[in-house]
């Protein structure tokens, strides 16, 4: 069951990345919407990772 779940998450990530590239090249409206959602999810994960770490390994 965990393998199926992991493959599903991987498929969503790869599809989201493909939509980001396609939207950057002027893809359809739905691809731009998926790209926006993918980038927003990435920013949320990035921000949550910063809140959990307690150190000075920030590149910003």
Descriptive labels:
mainly alpha, 2 helices
H/E element sequence: HH
Largest sheet: none
Low-confidence stretches: none
Q: How many helices in DSSP terms?
A: 2
* Estimated structural class: mainly alpha
Helix content: over 70%
Radius of gyration, in Å, reads 15 Å
**How far is it from the N-terminal to the C-terminal residue, by CA?**
38 Å
Q: What's the pLDDT, averaged over the residues?
A: 88
Strand percent estimate = under 5%
The strand count comes to: 0
Shape: flat
Short recap of the structure:
The chain has helices at 2-24, 29-52. By secondary structure, it is an all-alpha fold.
Your description of this structure?
This protein is mainly α and 60 residues long. 78% of the residues lie in helices and 0% in strands. It has two helices and no strands. It has helices spanning 2-24, 29-52. α1 (2-24) crosses α2. It is flat and about 35 Å long. The mean pLDDT is 88.
Please render the helix and strand layout as text.
Layout: H1 2-24, H2 29-52
Helix pairs in contact: 1-2
